[in-house]
Specification:
7 strands, globular, two-stranded antiparallel ribbon, five-stranded parallel beta sheet, Rossmann fold
């Protein structure tokens, strides 16, 4: 939640809260509210985000990417990741299912609400197997499942090359 408005609501406290969030600006001469232009960050075709509450997972991914041209943005929770995604548009996001406050599926639901991330590939990662209901939810969210034990051990770069290769047309389009 970015803010709140106390009851009773008035035109002034609604306008002040919206202005505080930098979503709109007020035209003082006519007392109307207009939408401000929203800047969304352009996709960074070599940026990966990892949302995982286990520091060892961050280290494993850093090692896997060491000799590549990929950059890693690591966060320790879904909440931290969602905050960072206000100013970043990575090409790919890996989200751990078993984070404490906001689990992976809930985090992906929030990611998919953001229009600037509609071309970002999103993977749910977990140490266990995905259930059929998880897979169905991921399909509805245009996300995929990848088991952690396979991903970080010599499979991350081959996966990235398969998905992105040298052809960045999907990202530019």
């Amino acid at each position: 939640m970015d803010g709140f408005i106390s009851k009773p609501t008035t035109r002034d406290n609604i306008t002040q809260e919206i202005a505080r969030l930098n979503i709109v600006k007020r035209d003082k001469s006519s007392h109307t509210v207009r939408l401000a232009s929203q800047k969304t960050p352009a996709m960074d075709p070599r940026l990966m985000m990892l949302m995982d509450d286990q520091p060892l997972e961050h280290e494993s991914v850093e090692r896997a990417l060491r000799d590549s041209d990929w950059r890693l943005e690591s966060v320790e929770s879904g909440e931290q990741g969602l905050k960072r995604l206000k100013s970043l548009t990575p090409a790919i996001i890996f989200v751990d299912q078993n984070m404490l406050a906001l689990n992976g599926i809930s985090t992906i639901e929030e990611i998919r609400k953001r229009a600037h991330l509609d071309q970002t590939l999103v993977f749910l990662c977990t140490a266990g197997n995905a259930t059929s209901s998880m897979v169905a939810k991921l399909e509805r969210l245009d996300a995929e499942y990848y088991p952690k034990d396979q991903l970080w051990r010599d499979k991350l770069l081959p996966l990235l090359n398969e998905l992105f290769g040298d052809d960045q047309k999907r990202l530019a389009g």
